[in-house]
Amino acid sequence: MSLLTRSTIHALALENGLPFAVLVERASGEVVLVNEPFRTLFGLADDALTDDPLRAAAATFEDPAAFLAGNADPTAMRRDRLRQRNGCTIERQVRAVFEDGHIAGWVWSCTDVTADEDALARIARVTEFYRVVLDALPANLAVFSPEGIYEYVTPSAIADPAVREWIIGKNDEEYGVFRGLPPAVSQQRVQRIRDCTERAESRTFEESFTSRTGEPRHFRRYVSPVIDTNGTVRHVLGYGLDITEQRITEEQLRQSQKMDAVGRLAGGVAHDFNNLITIIAGYADCLREEIELTDERQQLVEGILDAGERASELTRQLLSFSRRAVVEPRVISVNAVVEDTMLLLRRLLGENIIMQLALTASPTTVRADAGQLKQVLMNLAVNARDAMPSGGTLTLTTVRRQLESPADAAALHLPVGDYIELKVTDTGVGMSEDVRSHLFEPFFTTKPVGKGTGLGLSMVYGIVTQAGGQLQVDSTEGVGSSFRALLPALPEDVVPVDDTTVVPARALHHGTETLLVAEDEAGVRDFIARTLTRLGYTVLAADCGAAAVRLASEHAGTIDLLIADVVMPDFGGRPLWDALSAARPDLRVLFISGYSDDNTMAGLTSTAEAFMHKPFGVDALGARVRALLDASAERTAESPLTPR
Q1: pTM of this structure
Q2: Element (DSSP H or E) covering residue 482
Q3: 398 backbone dihedrals φ, ψ, rounded to 5°
C-alpha cells in the first residue's frame, strides 16, 4: 500500500474528531475519506464512499461547477467562499498532497461561516452607521491615541479630505506647523491630551489665535478619555467648539454696557450743567438789557453769553451721545437738509476740498430732528476735513434702500423695511482696524491734545440710533473713509412738514397773565420768575410738583400757563399738568428740561403742549410764553360761549 493509503489515510481518519468538514480525494478522483462533519454539513448518507460525495455536496450550491473546480489548481491552496441554495455561506479550502514530487490527492475542508458573515455584516452596518453619524456632526470632533496621535477627524473639523487623510498618524504639534498656528496653542493641545491620558480625567480649555486671514478666532476644547473594562485609556476623544461669535457678542455687550454707563453719567452731568448754563446765560441776558449798548461792559456780557453758548454746545454733544437729548422729530426730507447745510459745509471744509453731491431723485422723507441731522453732517464733514489735510474730495450721497432679507437686516441690527441711506465719503488717510474698533466710544480721539473732545462721532452715533437708525463705517488706510447713516424711511407719498416759524419781536413779549412755575433748581426757578415778572406777568413759583399743586389750590384766580420741569424729585411736569388740568381744563403748559429719556418724555405728544430746551435766554422764554398765551386766546375767541 502506498504512503497515502498506509499512513496518510490513518492520520486523516483522525479528522473525524475535528469540528469542520473534511474530505480526502486521490489523484484518480477516488474519495477515500469523508468525516462525519462533512456528511452532516451537506446532508450525505452514511453508506459507502462510492456515492460520489463531492458531487452530492456540489449539488447543494448555487454554482455546483465552481465547487467542483476546487482542485483545478494544484500549485497552491484554493480558498474561497460559496453560497448554498439554502442561503448559507461555506468557506471551502482545497490543498494538494504531494508524494515523490507528484500529486497524490487533495484534502477538502469546508466550514459553515454564515453566522460569522452575518456578524461581520452587522458590525459593518453598525460601523457605517456611526461613521455616517460622526461625519455628519457639526462639531469639531477628533479621536486620538493615548499618545495624542490623530486616529479620526470629522469633516466638520477638517473639510479637506486630503488633509483628513494626511493628519492620521500626526499629532497636534505637526498639525499646528501645517496650519501656521502659534506654537503655544499646539503645545497646549498636546499637554491637555497628555494630562487626560495620565489622569484618566476630562479636560476643558480655551484657546485664542489669529487666523491666516487676520481674523481673531476663539475655541473652547474638551478632551475625554475612552476607557476599557480594565481601566486602561485606549483613546482620547477631542471636541472643539467655535465660540468666536459668542466672544464677539460678549465684547459688544460689554461695550454697550460701558457706553450706557458713560451715557448715564454724561446725561446726568449735562442735565445739571444745563441748569447752570441757563442761570449764567439767563442773568447775563438780563444784564445786557440793563446796560446801554455803548457801555463797554456790553463786551463782558457778550463774552459770558458766548462762553455759555459754547458750553451749551458741549452739553448737546454729551446728551446726543447718551441718547438723552431732547429732540423734536418731524417729517423732513434728508435731501433738503443736505442742501440747506451745503453753504455752511463749504465754509467748514475750505477751498482745497472738493464737495460732490449724489442725491437720489426718490423721496427721502424720514421722521427726525432736522437740527440734529445737520449736526451729524457737520461733524462728519469736519472729521473728513481733518482726514484730508492736503485736500481731497468729500462726497455726500443719499439713496433709498430696502432691507428685505431678515439676515441682512439683522446684520445691521435693524428691522426689515425701507431706509434712507445718507453716506459721507472722503478720500483721506483712512483708519486702522484698532481705531475703527474704538471710533464711537466717548472721549476717544486721534487728534492732538486740545484739538478735539472725542465726542463728535459718539454724538453722531447717538443721534442716528436715537432716530431708530444705524451708523456704519468702512475705512481703508491710505484710501479714505465712508460713514453710512441708515434712517427709517417714511412712505414715498408722505410730504415733509414746513417748519417756517416767525419769532415775535421783543416788544410783544410782555403780558399781564398769571403763570405758575414749577422748577426744582433754585437758580433756574429764580431766573424764570424774575424774567417773567419783569415782562409784566404775575408769577407763582414752586420748588416741586406738590408745592405747585398747593399753590394752585390756594390761588383763587385764573392761572393761564403752567411752566413745569419735566423731571422733579417728587413727580414731573406731565403728572403735575394732569393733576392741575382736572380742576383747570383750559390750563396751558410749557414743559422745560435739560435732557429727557424715553421714560420721562413718554406721553408728551398732545397738541396742547409745548416744549423748551434748557438752556434758554430771556428772548426765547418770553417769545415762547407769549406765543402759547396768544394761541390759547385765539382758540378761546373762536369757541362758542358756554353758560357757567
Answers
A1: 0.44
A2: strand 480-488
A3: -125, 145
